[in-house]
Amino acid sequence: MSTGVIIAIIVVAVIILLALALLLPRMRERTRLKKRERELQGRREQVATQHREEAETRAQSAEAAEQRARMAEQEARRERAEAQLHQERATASERGMADHELIEDHERERFAGTSAVPDEGATRGSDEGRTSAFDEGRAAAHEPQRREDFQEGRAAEEERADNGGLLGRFRRRNADDPETARRN
User: I need a surface site. Which of 69, 115, 121, 173 has the fewest CB within 10 A?
Assistant: First the structure.
């Protein structure tokens, strides 16, 4: 081997060692950067997943809050409608347009002639032909003493009906009476 070949081998070996000495740190740096980049990407994905989960949780919470708000709004509308209804009833009561609601059936005779219960001539069509006995019967249903009186009156009427009624008494008396017999 000649000296030239040995020198050439040594020069090539030195160049290779020098190249390795210069390129090796760069390669290590690139490897380290790639490793850090992968770690950073993993952290990004982890944080993004956490944010997505939090966003989903908050979206569900917001949807539930919106539903509660819709329900509260409906409740408020219902309350407003009820308030309006009561206001209308108050106005009707102030004007005397709801007096009929203040008087029960058994009290109608007591309030006859007032704006709540019109006079007998202006009664409703369904009351036509009713006698005071009908009104007494309705009132008796709510007062124990009047109920007893009413029942006694009905019993007396039934007894009279068995004896020919009120007119039957007159007929019997007229037939038994000698003066009436002479007239006939």
Answer: 121
